[in-house]
Amino acid sequence: MWVLLVLFLSALFGRVLGLGGSPTDIVGRRLAPPSLEFPAGTDSLGRSLLPRLLEGITTTLLLSAVAVALTAVIATFCGIVAGYRGGKTGGTIMRVGDILYAFPAIVLAILVAAVVGPGIIAALASIVLVTVPLMTRMVGQATRQVVERDFITSAVISGVTSRTIMTRHVLRNVAGTIAVQGTYALSVAILVEGGLSFLGYGVQPPGSSLGLLVQEGTVYMVTAPWLIIAPGAVLVVAILAINLIGDALRDRFDPREARRLT
Known about the structure:
Largest sheet: none
Oligomer: single chain
Order of helices and strands: HHHHHHHHHH
Shape: elongated
Helix content: over 70%
Number of strands: 0
Number of helices: 10
Distance between the termini: 31 Å
CATH class: Mainly Alpha
Radius of gyration: 22 Å
CATH topology: MetI-like fold
CATH superfamily: MetI-like
CATH architecture: Orthogonal Bundle
């Protein structure tokens, strides 16, 4: 969490304070190596890489976070309805999710980008479609386990409405599953955004994202390796930090951890 906080605050305050200048200004010679004047070097147009890197961190993290928030809302609603209602309603929701889940993530993302056109909207829609199926399935499974418990049966016998049961009782008891799947979805979202931008379907120039910076850096991988090392390292660190948070949340919320008491 501290690593993600440092990345976020560095990008936020770096852009607010104008560290390294404007991401679009040509400030030096082309492909200059890292130095005191340009801590991250310059790119193929003579722009300082530091402000572009800070902009890329902001774009990637913000875009991924917004997409995962939308995923959490959609998947939570669909998963709880499918798990609680069951029958044809639950079966239909799960089958639609299975169809989407059957597509390879990057293929589905490219298909969405081809339909709506390259850009931020394509990246946002792709991330949501890629991450919703698995989260819906996991929330649905957790909901079915909760529905079988005695306090849900008591609520039904007492005449409590289905809407109240789903929002007041079921949602609280599947919150741990949502949190764990949300962290996993966030790491997948960063990978999908990076992959789309790398292939030219995501964030478009003169904008900047970590995936786009990696794509631009591959052209000069031998002559200017810093162009790919900096954004690539940030991607690795961010995804690793998110996965570690997810592992910690899973250990915290997984009921199987009760076996430690034996």
